[in-house]
Amino acid sequence: MNEPDVSATLTFVETGASTADAVVETLQSLDPLVLSLLVVAVAAALVGGWWLVRWFRRPPGVRLQRILADYDEVAVLMHPNPDPDAMACAMGVATIADAVDTDATLQFAGEIRHQENRAFRTVLDLDLERVESSSDLACDAVVLVDHNTPRGFTGAQTVEPVAVVDHHPGNGTGTRFTDVRTEYGAASTIFVEYLEEVGASTPDDEGDPVLSPELATGLIYGIQSDTDHLTNGCSRAEFEAAAVLYDAIDEDLLERIANPQVSDDVLQVKATAITEKRVDGSFAVCDVGEVGNTDAIPQAADELMHLEGVTAVVVYGKKDGTIHLSGRSRDDRVHMGETLRHAVSDIPMANAGGHARMGGGQLSVDHMRGIGPSDGIDDEEFEERLFSAMAGER
Ligand SMILES: [Mn+2]
Prior knowledge:
This protein has about 400 residues and is α/β, with parallel strands linked by helices. It has helices spanning about 5-30, 30-55, 60-70, 85-100, 115-125, 185-195, 215-225, 235-245, 250-260, 265-275, 295-305, 335-345, 365-370, 380-390; strands at about 75, 105-110, 130, 140-145, 165, 175-180, 280, 285-290, 310-320, 320-330, 350-355, 360-365. The strands form two sheets. A six-stranded parallel sheet has the order 3-2-1-4-5-6, with helices on one face. It is elongated. Manganese (II) ion binds near residues 85, 146, 167, 187 and 226.
């Protein structure tokens, strides 16, 4: 039974020996110059390999910091209309960069409209710069946070970020550093880990970053706002990050961000949505009319979702001849993005879409009423259409 095995082993040993002999012979026959080059090449490969292993064994926060140290200045780019998670991440990059004497300019496209976002910026005294085109970027070295593909400004598609830190799905990458964790509830959580990795939770006098009350408060608020106060889309990492931040959080600052004054305009729109809504089964639709601040529309949609028995809502309002739509759903039968897309599909120049639970869109009033060849529809028909789209009817 064992015989074939033994002979196989013998053959292997013989072959092995003769191969080793052949290698030695070949080496001896080589020119000394070639031989020494060969030795140098092997040594270089070993050192390179060792270096690579060491580099990739470093925690990502340390790697990011080493990369930031190569630049005098970086532009930290938040996504358009940045939210607290994006702003907190930008603060995180600035702190990690500051410890290695790299200046960080925090930049964003779009606007900071939502009262919570504005309160976040004001209370934490953030210096944020608005960009309209890629030429406004503070420098070539761009660090992208809370999104992975630059968008929302002229020339965005030409920007090649050096580093990308995000928690959204997508294919965007940085030329030197990419850390996208889609299982995380907030990108701020990743920065809490980075700050620990670079020693920020145990500050010393050697220039290591310090977890300031502002930064800790910003990061916990970023986590809270992206996870609906740790109730939705969380991973264990969010709770661990909250524990790390706990000692440094300034409760006064946190309270001021969480309870900002709401403009009269926004409250009016919410009130209209509550009193004027039309409910059909478990769906609600409301036309809130002309609005001063279009950001009030999604907030009104959020408000209506609190209504008992309502599982999907669409709120729409008009500003400057454009209808702004915002939909929410916690009904598995209603994919809100698809619902809105379907509802406006035959209206020229309209666009709408989004995720299963959240969607939005815009269309021009003139195009809806019908200009040129199309017949157009009125507000009432449009509402009927929204209801039937939610119900999955054609
Ligand atoms: Mn986020």
